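Students often ask what a holo structure prediction actually looks like on paper. The answer is less mysterious than it sounds. You provide the chain, you provide the ligand, and the output is a string of discrete structure tokens encoding the 3D arrangement of the protein together with magnesium ion.
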Amino acid sequence: MKITDARIIVCSPGRNFVTLELVTEDGITGLGDATLNGRELAVASYLTEHVVPLIIGRDARRIEDTWHYLYKGVYWRRGSVTMTSIGAVDMALWDIAGKSANKPIYQLLGGASREAVRAYCHANGATVDETLQSIADHQRQGYTAIRAQCATPGQPDTYGIAKGGQRYEPAERGLPRETLWSTEPYLQFAPQLFERIRREFGPGLDLLHDVHHRLRPIEAARLGRSLEPFHLFWMEDPVTAELQEGFRVIRQHTTTPVAVGEVFDSIFDCYRLIQEQLIDYLRATVLHGGGLTPLRKMAALAEMYHVRTGCHGATDLSPVTMAAAVHFGLSVHNFGIQEHMPHSEETDRVFPHAYSYRDGSLYPGDEPGLGVTIDEALAATYPYQRAYLPVARLGDGTIHSW
Ligand code: GCO
Ligand code: MG
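The corresponding structure tokens follow.
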């Protein structure tokens, strides 16, 4: 089953997406998400200039071989642009495999290990009261696991807070916005926030929190310890993900569970963290982790160490990645939870999909393959618009991790 055509579709229905469409000689199409937030055109060009010429004429059924051909063949291995490109090809090949077998992809991955893919949502607010309100609203929508973020008093630009009642979307059109970050007020405020949340909502609700790579190891250890009375489901990205030793410092001081991995691009980012039992949840995602093929291997290693999955699921991953994550989460034994940040209506109209949300969980639907299509005519009405994630500075002007 030869690949005869490959097209890259760049569109911006509310935010930018890059999509790879592969076509086989018998007319089956496969979709892969290729979106790398803030660096979209680098991936589009990598695919167009360097990957498409390599995959035309290849057998679409040779998923494992194609993955290694693109990974080992590049010589300059890894890096987010390379791995996002390989992830897009891998996803599209699995989509084709599912369609040619006339089965949803989870049926090719060992079948369902559970009835549904439990999802967590985002509740955020400029004040504690707004955050409490947002949690209550999401509980009414059926979520039983909720990520809570709140602006630290005096820091309106705190990570994760939506502006003026809009839905939260970190990338903004134009050049990057500069935000202000101050660690000490945050460390004092976070336990107060979770103390209020537990008081209002009781012990039953699963609570998550994203630190977004902002702390030094000993600061993260202090945060984890101060949050222990409120028994979080996880504390996410407490230190920068590349500082693996930092997780050892955190572990020495606190039992608050730790999640990391949304910026990981291979098993080499996480095998030590897993084997040394320094993390509890692996958040690598199908796309930026290089596709379903390597993500299943990461999950298999994690399973041996009782580390569970928790795939990144922000809106900068298109519905194609979200579908792949739902199929993966339904099938993999050590699934933990799936992030669910619903896409805008514009995005959902461009990418009609079979997966759906109901009562706190995601379901893949019965369509063969990933179960996502792209309305290309509609996509063409939303041309790419340059957008960046914000950057952060400390009060004295020093650049900090955003
Ligand atoms: C999350 C993430 C996102 C990232 C975004 C960057 O946990 O959902 O931290 O909100 O900021 O994906 O592109
Ligand atoms: Mg995060």
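The chain has 13 helices and 18 strands.
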